[in-house]
Every structure is written in C-alpha cells, then in structure tokens.
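Q&A log
Question type: sequence-to-structure
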Amino acid sequence: MSIIELSAGLALLASICSGLQALAVEYGLSNGEFDEDRSPALTAAVVSVAVGVTVFWALLFFRDVSLRDATVVKLLPFALAGLANPAAFRLLYFQSIDRIGARISAAVVSANPAVAALLAVPVLGESLTLGSGIGLLCIVGGGGLLHVTGATGAETTDIIADELSALNGRDLLAPLAAMGLLAGSFVLVKTGLENYSKPLVATAVGQTAALVAFGMLFVASGTSRHRVRIRDSTALLAFTLAGAFVAANWLAWFTALQLGSVVTVAPLSNLYPLVVVILSYAIARQLPRSPRVIVAIGSIVAGATLMQVT
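Response status: OK
Response body:
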C-alpha cells in the first residue's frame, strides 16, 4: 500500500469514526433510561470529553512529546477553542441529535467550513476563492433543499424525510449554534498553530479546557451535578464509545494529514454526514426513498469539501 493510499484510507476512517460517534450518542440517548430531572445530552458531552482527554494525554505521555516550549500565551488560543469545541459544541450537537436525530444534525453541522471561511476573511486576512464561493453556494443550496423537503411533508416512508417533515424552525437553533462554535474554534486553532505547531498538544489542551469547564460548572452548581448523574449502563457504554470514536477520528485525521495532502484528505474526512445516512438506512434495513434528501446532503458535503481544499 502506498503512502497516498494509506492517507486516503485514514481520512475515510476519520469520517466513519465521526459518523459512528453521532450514531452512538443517538443510540445512548434513545435507549438509555434517564430520570426526568437528568440531562442526557450534558452527560453524553462530559463522558465523551473525559474519554478524549484520557486518550490524548496518554498519547502525549507514550510518545514522549516535549512541552518545554509551551507557554500560557501559546496555549491560550487552544484553551479558548476548547471551550467552544468540544465543550459548548458537543453539548449543543448532542442536544440536536436528541431532538432531531443524527442525520439532520450531522448535515447541518458539516456546513461549518462556510462559516469558518467567512470568519477567516476579517480575522486572518484570508480571501474567498472561486472554489470557496461555489462551495458556499452548494451548502446554501443543499440547506434550502433540505428545508423544502421537510416543509412538503412528502415521501414520509423515508426515515430521513420523516424527520425533516417533523422539523420546525426552532429545532435548527441548536445545530446551527453548534456549527458556528465549531467554525469559530477552527479559526482560534489556526491562529494558535501559527505560533505553536504541535496539533496533538493543541488538541489535548482544548479537550482538557473543556473538561475543566465542565468541572467548574459542577463545583458551582449542585443542580448541574445532579443532572449529569447516570445509572444506565447502556447509555454510559454508548457515550464512552462515542468518546473513543471522536478520539479515533482526530488521530486518523492528523495522521492522514501528515502522510498526504489536504486535497486528498479533506474530501474523504468530510464524508461523515453521508456515513451517518448510509449506516442509518442499513440499520433500518431500508433503501433511500427520498432522492432530494440524498442530493441535499451530498450538496452540503461537496460544498464543505470545496471550501476546505480551495
């Protein structure tokens, strides 16, 4: 196997892991038993972040990565980014999965490169290319097509069309906010990496900042501590698996980028909404019956990919 083939395989693995994360969270939220005063989404976020922190600091230890050149100033952008993603982002994303399902949530969140590109223009002084402009139009067009599909209420024998037909405008607030936080965190990380180019350390710091934020919340609020308690083993296992899938996603993504080019890695690593859709149809033992849904999600994925590689 060539290095290019290995890089492509790892990028595809990153997408699969990201899709499995969303489905694992959805399974835990749907099949776990929670008291009415608990917050399953908050529990899922905390458990998955704790798993990520453990994995990444273990990797830093076993790989003997030096932190001698790290300073508070250099690490601050990554810590701030961690408050946005994974802390706030994952909570909102998991709330969205609980409310409207993994498929639509993943499709909305995958449009984050559009917001990141728009933020990068004034913040980082970057410019929009023709490819980025076309990608933005693809994302907007795909989002519009999803809205039309949901508004018509047609083709309700399709699992995704059913979810879309049940949507209202407020249901999209959580995934849209998550998308914005994710995009903003990318800009912060990009800024930080210009002064400290160790992605693994950056990720570990961001994950740790998120866990510390959750810890401070629990110290300050007894209600939050109570709401995050979990006694259901099914949900706990699902949320732990989700954290493992997230860690595997990042590891595969970083390794793929080290071995191959962005042009090769970005399109494959951004296929996770389609992975979620394919796995969802497979689990339901159903073939897609709504071509518009597939075209819409494909358009969003294609647009996000264009904005990453151009």
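Response note: The mean pLDDT is 86.
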